Amino acid sequence: MFKKLVARISELFAPGMDISYSRVNTYEFCPVKYRTVYCDKKYVPATPAISLGQTIHKTLEQYHQRKETTLDQLIESYDVCWVNEGFTSPQQTLEFYEKGRKMLERYFASSFASVVEIVSLEKHFVCKLGRHKLMGIIDRIDKYPDGTYAVIDYKTHSELWDQAKVDADLQLSVYAIAFQAVFGFMPRELVYYFLAHDVKLFTKRTPEQLAAAKERVIGVARKIIHKEFAPNTANCHRCDFKKSCQFSIV
User: What is the model's pTM?
Assistant: First the structure.
């Protein structure tokens, strides 16, 4: 009992760490993958999907920052921001280029119906979470005519999530925690914008959900600090390091 009390007191006064949703997500996927990426600095090689996602994010940031208003300007930004990495052939490059262009054309057509004001793009945040620093980047923050706000995250993958998955998603919970810490109040809505489908899914978070999300993030940070890096072989078949990892069962 005494040893547990001492350990608990030591933990309370021990230094924290910089933690983010990406770090938590990687650790929960597999602690060994976390160690590989964040400790050993062995990064995932570029893939067509990753490059397209980076391109779309950069394109929308540049387009809105310049306050441009035409489709030609949006496509021009797309061409300038294109990340040409991870493609295996010119045909594959063209395939993904056209996929991204169609996303942006649908995005542009939908934006005419919008009455919101975009107040922030690629918003970096740092806030306290217990003894840790919670860090990250919010793709976009909108302000509605009534003065309320929405936090938006772009998704470029082909999978369209259902509402239940969005309602339970940790990333949006982390963004809500950060928004409240930085601005002092909660956003009206949290939004995933699935650009491949031109679909927005809206959600909110209760105080109980935010408290659970904080505990989840802090719990992962605690395990990382204690160097708990046991492999999660259930995800080997989906891992970027399955061919090189000593624990891979694939």
Answer: 0.90
